[in-house]
Amino acid sequence: MKKITLRSWMVVAAGLVTLGASAQQKQTKVKHTAIPNYANHCGTTVHTERLNAATNGKYNDQQFESWLAGKVADLKARNAASKSTLNTNTVVTIPVVVHVIHDGDAVGTGENISAAQIQSQITVLNQDYSRQEGTNGWNDNPVGADMEIQFCLAQRDPNGLATTGIVRYNMGDANGFEMTEMDTTIKPATIWDPEQYLNIWVVKDIYVEVFGVQLPLAGYSAFPTMSGLDGLDGLSTEADADGVVIGSMFFGSHQIYPEGTYDETRNLGRTASHEIGHFFGLRHIWGDGDCDVDDYCEDTPVAADANSGCVAGTDSCPDSPGLDMIENYMDYTDDMCQNIFTQDQKLRMQAVLQNSPRRSTLASSLGCQPGITYDNDGSLNINAVDIAGCSTNYTIRLNLANAGNSTLTAADINYDIDGTPLTYVWTGSLAPGEETEIQIPMEGVAGSHMLNVNILTVNGGGDQTALNDTKSRAFSITDPVTAITQQITLTIQADDWGDEIAWTLTGSNGYSLSGGPYEDNYLDVQTITVEPNVCYTFTITDEYNDGICCAEGEGYYLIKTAENVELATGGDYGSGETKTFGILEEVNGVDSNKLNSVRLFPNPANTTINFEIPANMTNMPDSYTIYNSLGQVMGNGAVTAGRQSVNVAGFANGVYFVKLNGSNNSQTLQFIKY
Q1: Which one of the listed residues 275, 327, 552, 577 is annotated catalytic?
Q2: Mean pLDDT of the chain
Q3: Could you give the C-alpha distances from 588 to 595, 613, 618, 665, in angstroms and in order?
Q4: Nearest-CA neighbor of 108 among 260, 254, 250?
Q5: Which of 150, 288, 339, 629 has a CA-to-CA distance to 620 between 20 and 30 Å?
């Protein structure tokens, strides 16, 4: 069966639109066949098209190829004049930083791949780009070329400090990352100077949305651009989107590091060889066209389309000379099949390396030279700001790493929210190179906010360099969806492909309900009894990644209360989406979450906290105890009034907890001292 490529999928989709517009009678239904995971190897072409639209034509193919053709011709002429060959032994080494984006998995688990797996990928790149004999990168094809490019994991960061070249961020998404989210959110928040480093992001899943269908990818790269054309250079948004993105199961080699988790056929690290080929200006060997479109390399025979598997003797363009070069890294064949870059592909790479913005500076980067180390040096990153599903509370997740030579046992971390300064005191034990995640729970309000964090001290004294201490991130909180009710109605209207639908409803009390798949166009209406003070999460998925509205019928989902209050609705959700809502308790017509709960204010507090006990509370607390974040008792006393004040001016800045104790119950409140 012919492999579905992005181009062919778009052609099919366009044909379906035309067919639907011209048909006068109902068409015979052809059952969906779910797109296999990672059916599309590479998203570089669509990435380039998006950047071209966003940069007013800067990534125009014709302009780029016209510019590059002149550079390649100049390079050929210089080689001929000096009677040199392409294999000049002038090897350039490119510093690589690998950004591992994970969702909390331990190092070496899932998408949070180990350093050994990352190093296996660097080894493969060096074999493939040097045509190394005795490895999978060797070939005896007369047009095969040693690209004379090597790669190293960076040893110094943009501040000149020592690094392993691997940076981990706990900011993964269970639903994966759409290309636009990678380019506008993940990359700008994590990228190192693209003029000095080849940035590679390793993530769990990547996809691109086309015609409402989420097409999974193995990887994609930012294509290089030209220089010297007035009005086309210097757009910062484009620099933020530079680099390479690869799915974790396609990164590394199972032969070199078998302990990793890999794709069945793309498990020898050739996805990175392919995408970095794009990074240095190579096109797919079929030119993203047919037999009339080329890749601008005369020594790669024309091909009608991408090849899959490893079928020897493939000739998709019999009217043109040569068989399809299925062993070329720029095809879509299995990793075991690939082993060649050609002489003309090398010329393109060399021309890009010498002339293209953010490529021409890589060879002179100091990133592969050892960086500076200090005895006492903490490094700080913001992993994420997690918003609670049914409240405005949130958790700040910071990554504290020991970048120094001495064991890190203590760190004072300053963090401020919208200008309100707070301090978190961390204690523990981190050996050099180790890291830990710090979680700081916060009470918030709806709206836009700014988080700033920095290290004040380490090991009881000053951090010896502030270059890696400070980070900032904007975030926003929305008011939670809540209602007072005892019953909800869940309605699922399936579209023309009901067997692709599945959903779950879970509650923070352990409740669980699921549904689907369905008959086509089936209507499912369920009345569900719900409990108060529970946060419910509804998740719906579509196997074909096109939702239930609107291309294939008018499907939808709707959750509303018995009182007809809408809690969640949708249908045009691609592969899936999640909604949360909270059910509150009603006592004499008043929300007991507000009436029967103790209120603590102000929060954050500087000198005094107050807790206010509702007059109708049936089980009054009789005492309170204040604990710090380490569980140490900081103060206690009797509760003698409905509104009571406690002096906290002598407390150190940080997070504290007030436990109110009653005869048969207790309640714990949190506050922040600044």
Answers
A1: 275
A2: 86
A3: 10, 18, 14, 22
A4: 260
A5: 629
Q: Residue written as tokens 């050929």?
A: 76
Homologous superfamily of domain range 385-477: Immunoglobulins (2.60.40.10)
Upstream peptide bond of 441 is cis (omega within 30 degrees of 0): no
Distance CA 648, CA 608 (A): 5
3-state secondary structure (DSSP) of residue 126: helix
- With contact defined as beta carbons under 8 Å apart, do 342 and 299 qualify? yes
CATH number of the 596-673 domain? 2.60.40.3080
- CA 273 to each of CA 151, 276, 277: distance values in angstroms, whole numbers, following the listed order: 11, 5, 6
Ranking 83-87, 95-99, 505-509, 623-627 by mean pLDDT, the lowest is: 83-87
Quick one: pLDDT at residue 85?
55
Q: Do domains 385-477 and 596-673 have the same CATH topology?
A: yes
The CATH number assigned to the domain with range 6-284+341-355 reads 3.40.390.10
Residue 132 has which token pair?
């190394």
Asked whether 79 and 85 are in contact (CB, 8 A), the reply is: yes
Half-sphere exposure of 335 (CA within 13 A, CB side): 25
Domain boundaries, the chain: 6-284+341-355, 385-477, 482-587, 596-673
Decide if 554 is catalytic: no
Count how many Cα atoms sit within 13 Å of the Cα of residue 201 in the half-sphere of its side chain.
34
Q: Compute the half-sphere exposure of residue 427: CA atoms within 13 Å on the CB side of its CA.
A: 4
In this structure, the number of other CB atoms found within 10 A of the CB of residue 645 comes to 11
Here the contacts of 365-368 (C-beta below 8 Å, separation 24 or greater) are 365/94, 365/95, 365/195, 365/196, 365/197, 366/156, 366/196, 367/95, 367/97, 367/152, 367/154, 367/155, 367/156, 367/196, 367/197, 368/93, 368/95, 368/152, 368/154, 368/155
Spatial distance between the Cα atoms of 235 and 544, rounded to a whole number of angstroms: 36
- The DSSP result for 525-587, as a single string, is EEEEE--TTEEEEEEEEETTSS-SEETTEE-EEEEEETT--EEEEE---TTEEEEEEEEE-EE
pLDDT for position 588: 40
* Of the listed ranges 5-19, 182-196, 277-291, the one predicted with least confidence: 5-19
Please compute the mean of the pLDDT values over residues 49-63 and round it to a whole number.
Answer: 82
* 3-state per-residue secondary structure call for 207-276: EEEECCEEEEEEEEECCCCCCCCCCCCCCHHHHHCCCEEEEHHHCCECCCCCCCCCCCCCCECHHHHHHH
Structurally, at CATH architecture level, domain 482-587 sits in Sandwich (2.60)
Element (H, E) at 355: helix 343-355
Structure tokens at 206: 């990547």
- pLDDT over threshold 50, residue 251: yes
